[in-house]
Amino acid sequence: MHSVDFQRDFGHFSLTFVSIRVYLMIAAKLRFAGGSRYETDPRKQCQRKVRGMEVEIQREFPKAPLVGVGAVIVQEGRVLLVRRGSEPLKGHWTLPGGVLEVGESLVDGVVREIREETGLEVEAIELIELLDRIHKDGGRVRYHYVIADYLCRVTGGELRAASDADAVRWVERAEWNSHSALIVDPVTVRVLEKGWRRARALRTEGR
């Protein structure tokens, strides 16, 4: 497993240790579930190239939950959000991210997804939250994701909207904590606030 050591943030712990714990938590969620990116046609499956092979991911009405990664990217007190161009949450502003690929670590996945969706290179600092995203259509589960959201910092790249994001922008804290023109769902607001506060604490500590 890929190891990225952040001793300045974790003391004697590494991000690899945290990733192992997250994997165990995700495995438990998937096991008990039965068995932020989305395909909008329920008759279709999303095809992606993984390690040189075409694989199919059934995102809508899945047979089992999918593992996703997201990023709370904080820079100069602002957080990066993308506006979703497809369902679920089409038109909403949310955290950039996507589905983990086979053979990919959580940290590698979040770095890749941010590069593909925003054009930025990022460094994962620590896990902010592990959560479920379940959207139902009548009595059926239309979407089910288990998402690991990481606090990240920008290391390079050029900001642009790509992949399934139709817009991308830096957002001030007041914008997600007020009735602004941005449509942000409560779960995203909670993770945003948690990540923003953690980033501020690390900055205060000089890390």
Structural class: alpha+beta
CATH top level? Alpha Beta
Molecular shape:
globular
Question: How much helix, percentage-wise, in residues?
Answer: 25-40%
Instruction: Give the CATH architecture.
Output: Alpha-Beta Complex
Mean pLDDT: 79
Binned strand content: 35-45%
Number of strands: 9
Number of separate helices: 5
Which fold does the CATH topology refer to?
Nucleoside Triphosphate Pyrophosphohydrolase
Radius of gyration: 17 Å
Report how far the terminal alpha carbons are from each other: 25 Å
Describe the protein's architecture and organization.
With 207 residues, the chain is an alpha+beta fold. The protein has one domain (7-204): Nucleoside Triphosphate Pyrophosphohydrolase. Helix content is 29%, strand content 36%. The protein contains five helices and nine strands. A hairpin with a 2-residue loop joins strand 1 and strand 2.
Keywords:
seven-stranded mixed β-sheet, 36% strand, two-stranded antiparallel sheet, alpha+beta, single chain, Nucleoside Triphosphate Pyrophosphohydrolase, 207 residues
Sum this structure up briefly:
With 207 residues, this protein is of the alpha+beta class. The protein is built from 5 helices and 9 strands; from the N terminus they run ααββββββαβββαα.
Secondary structure layout plus pairing:
Layout: H1 7-10, H2 15-33, E1 46-50, E2 53-57, E3 66-75, E4 78-84, E5 93-94, E6 97-99, H3 106-118, E7 120-137, E8 140-157, E9 165-171, H4 173-176, H5 186-204
